[in-house]
């Protein structure tokens, strides 16, 4: 059952920023990189990586973790690592010259799922195969459902 909750927390960490953006519109939408450019002249992260999204993702995990029998601290760390992975993939995509809306299969999902799941594997009594299963399930679900969420107008990008 823990693996199901880890999947739920991953989904929350990545979905809460999207929901917060829809509900709050432009409120608290300051970009984390404050519009800074890297030495290659490209944005550090991009304007879609906001403080609002970071707080929403971490807060969602912190609030739901106790329902799963996990501590609030675990939820905070798990959510923060998921969003750190998302920031790392955005940084890598900008260095590759890809736009914020560009699709990069694997790069869009692996850092944001692997970092928190490795943390969970070290923290919780789960097997390696369970940790791998959570990452694979998250990647597959993300790849399959994101285009549908885009068509329904829930997501701004189809990934």
Automatic annotation (TrEMBL):
<feature type="transmembrane region" description="Helical">
    <location>
        <begin position="129"/>
        <end position="150"/>
    </location>
</feature>
<keyword id="KW-1133">Transmembrane helix</keyword>
<feature type="transmembrane region" description="Helical">
    <location>
        <begin position="54"/>
        <end position="84"/>
    </location>
</feature>
<dbReference type="InterPro" id="IPR032690">
    <property type="entry name" value="CarS"/>
</dbReference>
<keyword id="KW-0812">Transmembrane</keyword>
<dbReference type="Pfam" id="PF01864">
    <property type="entry name" value="CarS-like"/>
</dbReference>
<protein>
    <submittedName>
        <fullName>CDP-2,3-bis-(O-geranylgeranyl)-sn-glycerol synthase</fullName>
    </submittedName>
</protein>
<keyword id="KW-0472">Membrane</keyword>
């Amino acid at each position: 059952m823990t693996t199901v909750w880890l999947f739920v927390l991953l989904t929350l960490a990545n979905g809460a920023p999207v929901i917060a953006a829809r509900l709050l519109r432009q409120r608290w939408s300051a970009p984390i990189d404050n519009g800074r450019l890297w030495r290659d002249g490209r944005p550090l992260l991009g304007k879609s990586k906001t403080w609002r999204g970071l707080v929403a993702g971490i807060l969602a995990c912190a609030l739901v973790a106790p329902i799963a029998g996990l501590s609030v601290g675990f939820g905070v760390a798990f959510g923060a690592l998921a969003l750190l992975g998302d920031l790392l993939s955005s940084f890598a995509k900008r260095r590759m010259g890809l736009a914020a809306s560009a699709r990069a299969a694997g790069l869009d999902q692996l850092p944001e799922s692997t970092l928190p799941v490795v943390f969970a594997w070290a923290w919780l009594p789960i097997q390696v195969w369970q940790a791998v299963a959570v990452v694979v399930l998250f990647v597959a679900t993300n790849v399959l459902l994101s285009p549908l969420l885009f068509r329904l107008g829930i997501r701004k990008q189809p990934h």
